[in-house]
Design brief:
This is Oxidoreductase. By secondary structure, this protein is of the alpha/beta class. The protein has a domain of 141 residues: Rossmann fold (3-Layer(aba) Sandwich). It has nine helices and 14 strands. The strands form two sheets. The protein has a nine-stranded mixed sheet. Helix 7 packs across helix 9. The longest helix is centred in the middle third of the chain and has 16 residues.
Length: 320
Amino acid sequence: MTLKIGVIGAGHLGKIHLRLAKASKHYTLVGFYDSNKEYGEEIAKEFGYNYYKDLESLIEACDVIDIVTPTLSHFEVAKKAIQAGKHIFIEKPITNTLDEALELIKLTEQHNVKGQVGHVERFNPAFQAVVNKIENPMFIEAHRLAEFNPRGTDVPVVLDLMIHDIDAILSVVKSEVVQVNASGVSVISDTPDIANARIEFKNGCVANLTASRISLKQMRKARFFQRDAYISVDFLEKKSEIVRMKDAPESPDDFAMILQNAEGVKKQIYFENPTVEANNAILDELESFAEAITLNKTPKVSLAQGTEALRVAQMVIDNF
């Protein structure tokens, strides 16, 4: 059984969603809506998708509504879809405000529909290759640097870029956030373009995050430090590495890397390069949502998780 899906918003990311929804075996693409009628008709003519001139008609014709509009309009579009009894996939950040996100959760419960948030890095193959190896990390460092692009500057860099790492970190640290310290600088935009945050968790874990949209080079890396292991994830190059430390054997071979601490305890270092399976992360997140609907499971990135990522992101912004 395929689900009938409609895409709202046909900008850069919306066009990607349209193409993948059409290609997916889990969905039947009904059509799309864009508030810019002239642009919408151009896209329909160029790619052959059905353009709906009003939002309500598209919502009525679908099972699933895929919301890829600017953040400021997420809430209103999602609310209409949910009240019409439709499942929603909504791009990150879930909404512009925490109150809006909490309202959407309440509405999905009332109307018995599912929702998923597009935190695509959860489906990044480099992260997926090691996520089950990340156990009780106590220090995390993440850098997400991008060259300037006018797209996305309607929100602070924290909601545009850093929220990806906030969500990934919240998915592996099983503890509540107790303190946030942050600084942000507006260089080109009216909102901060570069930000740093130190997030402290109740269990003692500390995450140090940096995000910039005015860098000369791109970087998307995270490093997780835990007892006897260091795990690195390169979201951009789609590579990951695990460095483990184990008690050194009595007679290590000549090429073994051995460290000895002040107490004389010897540890041997082992390097692992997990197999990273190539994938299309956006297609995977859309199809995982289809699976959650058909099998009646909790979506991999639920509205509650998207709301928690927004809540922590808002704590960062409030600390500037």
